[in-house]
Amino acid sequence: MDTDLLIVGGGPAGCAAAVMAASVGMRSVLIESGDALCGALRRIPVVRNVLTATNGPDLAAAIGADLARCDLCRVELGHRATLIDAFDDRVEVTIEPVKTMKSVETVEPVETEEDAGSARTAGSRLTAPYVVIATGVGPLGPEGAGWLGGVAGRALPQLWEADPAVIDDRTVLVLGADRPLGTVARAHPELRARLVVAHPPEDAYKTEEIRRDPRVELVAVRRLELRPGTASAPITAEVETVEGERRALTADLALLNLGSVPAPPAGAVVADRSGYCPPGSQHPGVFTAGDLRSVRFQRIATAMGSGGEAALGAYYASLGLPTETGGPPTEVGGPPGRTGGG
Ligand SMILES: Cc1cc2nc3c(=O)[nH]c(=O)nc-3n(C[C@H](O)[C@H](O)[C@H](O)COP(=O)(O)OP(=O)(O)OC[C@H]3O[C@@H](n4cnc5c(N)ncnc54)[C@H](O)[C@@H]3O)c2cc1C
């Protein structure tokens, strides 16, 4: 065995798993495909639902410092887990270096004498009795949104990646009502943009935070068809609203805000019919944590809690004690896509 516990994904869930594992004396190797830990947190300017944290970058820095102090965890940045194999007595994780890695910003890999294997060889395999999979979710592309037409071949940026200066003083057609809209509105009260948010009815429950924002116009639609256009010309779209009315929407630019889809590595990670990977359905050596578990529980605090639980699950299993890996309900939501994101 290379270590006591392998952890795939260096977001809040994976990092919490590493710290919890160390607290009970388990060595771990954490594999993160990005060039820094907690990349998602670095893009959240304002946080209001996490104890002691008010913004993502500071929280990411604090977590990075915690991991740097964690002698029992070796962090391998810039490596993607491509395959998980689970056997009766062990799990194996195949990892590949990520070629586009730019720099190592926060945590240098910590080598300990006990670390038998190095993760730095192309296509190498790491072996341990248990693995925590905490790879989070990725953005849902327009091809996964059945209500959206005319998007093929159009390069539409993601709302959560957009520069606020590009939005200011403009009319923006936001495609989908996923939660990054609330993040943008909360983080930039000074923005004078008009945000026309076209969304399928299934997204209505996500609009609570922004529905009273005077900059936002919500349009619940059955169908939206973008008209052909160029990047520089105003955007126009034909919509059929949920009431059956036909309307034309015009905007200076269009941004995607469709939701997210789970991003597990290939192999032994079991997904339910919505594509998410509930802890209770996994091989005894595989523990899932964070956003990957469920369409509904996608929050920083729940990711951390579930990461800690996953590591404790592995610890109790190593002692031969029964573990409960029930996790949140798994039958919520439809297929990945229209209900993506929490
Ligand atoms: C715009 C935006 C705003 C948000 N605002 C809030 C908020 O205000 N409050 C809140 O509670 N939550 C918020 N969230 C949600 C929050 O970011 C997530 O719930 C949280 O980050 C989930 O943690 P995680 O560890 O499960 O996944 P992630 O943070 O996504 O971490 C997963 C990690 O795994 C890595 N990875 C993926 N695949 C592989 C692989 N094959 N091999 C190796 N590494 C891999 C990724 O690079 C990533 O670093 C927001 C999300 C977004 C996008």
UniProtKB/TrEMBL annotation:
Biased composition range(s): Low complexity: 321-333
Region (Disordered): 321-342
UniProt keyword list: Flavoprotein, Oxidoreductase
Annotated GO MF terms: oxidoreductase activity
TM helices/strands, residue ranges: none
PANTHER family: THIOREDOXIN REDUCTASE 1-RELATED-RELATED (PTHR48105)
Protein name: Pyridine nucleotide-disulfide oxidoreductase
Organism field: Streptomyces antioxidans
Lineage, uppermost ranks: Bacteria, Bacillati, Actinomycetota, Actinomycetes, Kitasatosporales
